[in-house]
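User: Study the chain.
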Amino acid sequence: MSDAYISVSEFARRAGVSRQAIQQRLNTSLREYVKTEQGKKTINIKGLELFKGASLAQEYDKQNDNLAQGIIETLQRTIDALQGQLDVKDQQLQEKDRQIQAYEDQLKVKDRQIEAANIALRGAQELHAGTIKVQLAPGVDQSQEPEPVITVEEPAQEPETAAAPDEPGPEANKKRHWWQRRR
């Protein structure tokens, strides 16, 4: 069987290389294994030993390619998972930003309310201080509250008649305060 000859295409398939690669080596390293029969070149299968190392290298490369492809697929799945997590984190950050903005808006409203309350308080304090100043002013009797003054209009006068001695005249009503008129 060691003297078996096969076609160039079959030899290329068994060697694991292209037909063109075998054609290029027919006149160099494969020359001693080549035989021409009926106008066609055939190659002894002993020549495959030259390609055994290349076949092993190609097989090793295929295994490495498969391993590399597996690693690439694993890395791609990891990247996809991490990208998904990143998208979720981005959404969470956007939600937190919206919440922070809402809290800031609430704080601005509260600040305005506090400022309005402070203005009202300052006004009340100034009013109270003004009242105290008036009360403490010289010549103001602080022991009693100020008396209200009531003015009464005089009725239209009729012709003078003699008034009874026990009734005071209209002039007395003018000069007296309201609590003095009761007596």
In short: The first strand starts at residue 5 and ends at 7. DSSP finds four helices and three strands in the chain. The mean pLDDT is 79. The longest helix spans residues 48-136.
